Structures are given as C-alpha cells and as structure tokens.
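I am still getting used to backbone structure tokens and would like to learn alongside you. Would you supply a protein for us yourself, any chain you care to pick? Start from the sequence, derive the backbone structure tokens from it, and show both lines together. Go ahead whenever you are ready, and we will take it from there.
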Amino acid sequence: MSLSDGLLQEAIAGLDGGLIGPRCVVTGGAGFYGRALVAALRHLGVQVVVFDRVAVGGARDEGITQVVGDLRDAGALARAFEGAATVFHTAALINLQSVYRPETRREVFEVNVEGARRVVEASRACGVRRLVTTSTVNVCFDPDNPAAREREGADERTPYASAFVDLYTETKVAAEKIILGADAALGGASSALRTVALRPGGLWGPGEGGVMLKTFVGELAAGRFKVLVGDGRARADNTHIYNLAQATIRAAIMLATRPEVGSGGAYFVTDGEPINAVEWFRPVVEALGCGFPSRRVPAGLVERAALAMEWAHRLGGPPALVTRSAILKITRDHTFSVERARRELGYTPTVQRRNGLPLCMEALRSLHAKRRR
C-alpha cells in the first residue's frame, strides 16, 4: 500500500502515532491487511517490525524491520517483540470449510489458537504494554442457533457462537478469548499487558481487493456466476482495510491513554453500510460488462450441495467449489452495529463502496481479463 494513498491518509488523519510507539510489531505484516496497517503506522512515524512467514517485497523503508518467522516459533516471536510498545496481531490461517481432514484442523489450531497463546506469552516476556488483535464478526455468527439466527444490528453484547460454521470461526473464537483473557484488568495481572479485539466484516481494499473481491472476480471470469441463492433479503457487513487500520490504531491509542474504557473488550468495525452480500458486487459485475443474474435457487438446496462437496473433499476428492459457510454468509442476516467503536474509539468509516470500489476497478479489469484468458 502506498504511503501517499489519499484514502489511507484521510482514514488516519489526526491520529498521533507517538502514543502507541515508537516501535510496534505487526504479525502478518506481509498480508493484505497487514501491509495496509504497516503503511498507516509508517505514515504516522511509527517504527514497525513486520513479523511474517514471508518477507515483504518492494522499496526499502528504513523505518521497517523484518523478522521472518512462524507464530509457532517462540524464539522468533521474542526477537520480533523485543523493545516493542504495541503488538498488532493480524496473522491467521483462513479456512472456511465446515468439514476438514484431521491434519488440516491440527495446523489451523496450531497457528490460530496456539499462535495467539504464544503471542500473549511473548508480549508479557518482552514487556509489551498493548496488544490489539484482528478478530472477525464471524465469532458471533450463529445461524444454527434458533435464538440467534437473525443477527441484524447486533452489538458487542451478542454472545459468542455456540456452534461454528467453519474452522476459521472456531479458531478465532478461541484465539479472541485467549487474548482478551490476558488483559491485566481481567486476571492477566502478571504483567501490565492491555488487550483489545477488533471484529471486521468481509475485508476488501485497493488493488485486486483481497480474497473477497479476487475470488468473486475469478468466479465471474470462469462463468460460474449464473444464479442467485436465497431470496436476496439477508444483509451482511464488509470492512475496507483502511477503515480497519484506522480503528486498529485508535484502539491502541485508547489502550495507551484510557485503558479503563475498553481494555479487555471487543469492537465491531465495519463500513457501516449493511447490504446483501451478493448485491454488494453489482457495480463490479456491471463495470466488467457482465450480466447480473435474475434466476434464484433455494438456499437450503445449495447449502446441502456445498456440504456434500466438502465431504467429498474430506474423503479425498477435489476442493469444494463453494462451502456451506459461504452460503450461510449470503443467506442469513448478520449485521453488527459500530456504535461502540464510534463512541469509545472515535471511529468513523471514511471508505465505503461509493468511494473505495472505483479505485479497485482498474486492477479488477486486469484480473478479470487475465482469468478469462
């Protein structure tokens, strides 16, 4: 991400990086969101250590140090965290399957859950004062629970899901509990570590837009966007990575200046424009000169087909073209209020579909043409 990006500068305008620095760590700093957060921190003058399994390419920045390592490596974490005032934990494996092989479950739990535990341990050992973790709205997405099936406009009082739509959700619930439970005010008094979790919706942003946009355009190019699933009334939330970067930095400032406000708690962070998850892509479809489908198929039918494909993969077949989790996300209401983030962090979503999506279209047109070829 470019430090000169006008939307990024607008999102973080007025924030004081000196309150959370001078040195911070971003785990997963080579990833799609991690790169945006690193760019935001550098724009605010903060020295950043990027901790990731891969090195960050591109132009050299004297304010960025790289430590290549794995969340399961305590020694690598210690090297990265030494001397840091704040750790931003964004690294995770994303697996949206509800049926999976034992070795897959083991790896995702080791990285997402045990990795979170090691991040806490390294933070305490190295004297880190603040830990902000990137969670997900999925931790409160509970479509199989009749009492929680429709979650439109819910807030942070919503309980964790009692059943999990995919492996990613299950591990993010466990990881969030570990990190929030480590807060000094909630029993983690062996250190002065203060913690907070941010819960974004579907992440999108500049370039090819991240997994959400990139996957959709790939399906569009392959000619697989032919029908709509369900009645189209369900709504969901998305989150631009610059909005999330703003909220992340604001959360760290809150931990540094007013920890009694939200330390040990969670905040939903979205673009503040709930919409049907498929309808959100309509401007992309139209800009690429493709037709938007009108024919609908029952959600239950596609959900069962997706589950069957997942089981086939579990038993040795090819990866499922669509997962049950993906169908549930587009056919069940699950929107969340950002009022607490507005009130306590001063968060204001500055990037929404109207001003953010047009800036993605050049890259998306190129991607669409390449995938069609």
User: Anything to note?
Assistant: Residues 60 and 66 are 11 Å apart (CA to CA).
